Amino acid sequence: MPIMIKRIGVIGAGQMGSGIAHVCALKGYDIHLADVDQAHLDKGLENIGRNMDRQISRGMIRPEDKDAALKRIVPVVDYKAFAECDLVVEAATENEAIKREIFKKVCVDLPPNVLLATNTSSISVTRLASVTDRPGKFMGMHFMNPVPLMGLVELIRGIATEEETFRTVREVVVRLDKKPVNAEDFPAFIVNRILLPMINEAVYALYEGVGNVEAIDTGMKLGANHPMGPLELADFIGLDTCLSVMQVLHEGLADSKYRPCPLLVKYVEAGWIGRKVKRGFYDYSGERPVPTR
Length: 293
Prior knowledge:
It is a single chain. The protein is of the alpha/beta class and 293 residues long. Helix content is 45%, strand content 15%. It contains 11 helices and 10 strands. It has an 8-stranded mixed β-sheet, with helices on both faces. It has a two-stranded antiparallel ribbon with strand order 9-10. α10 packs across α11. The chain is globular, with a radius of gyration of 19 Å. It starts with 6 loop residues before the first strand and ends with a strand.
C-alpha cells in the first residue's frame, strides 16, 4: 500500500531541482529545497518565480497559486532538515561520484522510513542505491526538462526497490499530472537511450562536414518535424550533460556506436556547454542565437 507523502525534499536548486520543486509545490506538497549555499538557492527560487510568472501569463495558473506555492518552498543548506520529509529527490549534476557522496551524507540524519529517489538521466539506480542504508526504499524518478512543461517521468526500480516504494512514488507522479512510464535499470533508460545517440550523431554530422549547424537543425526541424534541431536541443540540455550520458552508454553497453563525438568532447573541454554559459553550437550573447559553425 502506498505511503502518504506530504513533504518532499529536493537536492539541487538548478534547472532540474528547481523545476521539481516548482511542480510539487503547485500541487500542494511542502518542499525543502537544498543546495550548497544560499546564493544557489536564491537563484533557484528566482527561476521558480519567473517560470510561474510565465505560467500566469499563459493562463496556466493564477497569481494566488504562485503565492501559495512559493510559501510552501523552504530553502535549506543542511541535509538535517530532510528528517522532516517523507520523500527526498536528488537532482544534482549528472555525475555518479557527486551523487554517491550526496546520498552517503543524506542518510546520516535521515529516519529509516524516508524514501529516496534520484533524478539521474542515465546512471545505474542499483549502484546509487547501494551506497545508502535503504536500497529497498530507493528508486529512479527521471523528470524531463523543462519540468513544468514536460509531461513524462521515467520510473526506474533498482534491483532491491520494494513494491511499496514504487507504488508510492508512482502515486506522487500521477498527482503531479505527469505520465509515469516504467523503465528497466539499463544505461540511460528509455528516453536518453534513444535521444542522446541522435544528438551525438548530429554532432558527428557537423564534425565530418556533412552540414553546418543551421543546415543540420533546419533539416531535422523541417524534414523530421522536430520542434527543435538536435544541436539547439544539445545546447538546451547542456553539452556537459550530453557528454556524460554518452559516456555512460559507451561504458555501460560496451558498443562503439555510443562513442562520444570528439567535437562534443572538445566543446565541453573548452567550457562551451550551451545556453547556460551563452556559448555552445550557438552563440547566445546577442538578441538571438547565432550558429558558431
